[in-house]
Amino acid sequence: MFFLRKKKNRAVLEHKDKIPVHIAVVMDGNGRWAEKRGLPRKAGHREGANTLKRIVTECDAIGVRYLTAYAFSTENWNRPKDEVDALMSLLLEFLKNADKELAGKNIRILVIGDTERLSDEIRREITRVVSNTSANTGLSLVIALNYGGRCEIASAAARIARDVKDGRISPQDVDEKLFSEYLYTKGIPDPDLVIRPSGENRLSNFLLWQSSYSEFWYSNILWPDFSRNDLHEAISEFQRRNRRYGGL
Ligand code: FPP
């Protein structure tokens, strides 16, 4: 078994030029993982956070440059208050411990989403962790927090309209490249591979603009059970795909 896993890991590394630069993950299935075990849903989210740490380390080790994790969507506020509170305290804990956990790891943390609605304490931690890790040159872990693709696109359009109105840009300047610069992901390449476990085959308002030409990998595994091996399987399949970007 161990030998087989080693062999699989080597397989993706044999195609080093085809390691996805940017992987995005929808960390889905935490609630079901907990319910199956008779545990509160928040126990599933905690286990999901542990999975994320393992996957961050593995992505960094194999040379992935960006990993975006969907941690909280603009729609997740509709969940019961105790689940929202549990997710927020988990996020705060994750941010507070990030320095200790990442010590010596050269990982940079970025946050995308509308952070205005988050508590002052979380916003302070975001500012601190993002600034403390800004010089790191390894993997960038992009945490999507109060993130919604439609909200991101609408707010980019509003800021572009303001800049046109104030004469900073003209309507003719607005093209795909300029539009991208108004998104939360400015400077971050589009995801090559979007991974969604837990048996759901949808995008759920995640990186709508950015995933136009992403490859998708779906599986029935619940996120807390998602292993290094599953990551390697997703990457191996990605490496076998033929990306044509609308051409031949
Ligand atoms: C979806 O699973 C998952 C979420 C809404 C939250 C994901 C958040 C974490 C894993 C928390 C940690 C994140 C960081 C950055 C520390 P679900 O609850 O919808 O699962 P279900 O479909 O089984 O109910």
Description of the molecule:
The chain has 248 residues and is an alpha/beta fold. Helix 3 (41-62) packs parallel to helix 4. The protein is built from eight helices and six strands; from the N terminus they run αβααβαβαβααββα. It has one domain: Decaprenyl diphosphate synthase-like (Undecaprenyl pyrophosphate synthetase, 3-Layer(aba) Sandwich), CATH 3.40.1180. The longest helix has 22 residues, at 41-62. Helix 5 (120-132) links the parallel strand 3 and strand 4 (140-147). Strands 3-4-2-1-5-6 form a six-stranded parallel β-sheet, sandwiched between helices. The site of farnesyl diphosphate has 19 residues, from helix 2, helix 3, strand 2 and helix 4.
Question: How do you describe this structure in short?
Answer:
With 248 residues, the chain is an alpha/beta fold. It has 8 helices and 6 strands; from the N terminus they run αβααβαβαβααββα.
Topology readout:
Layout: H1 2-13, E1 22-26, H2 30-36, H3 41-62, E2 66-73, H4 81-102, E3 108-112, H5 120-132, E4 140-147, H6 149-165, H7 176-180, E5 193-196, E6 215-218, H8 228-240
Parallel strand pairs: 1-2, 1-5, 2-4, 3-4, 5-6
Helix pairs in contact: 1-8, 2-3, 3-4, 4-5
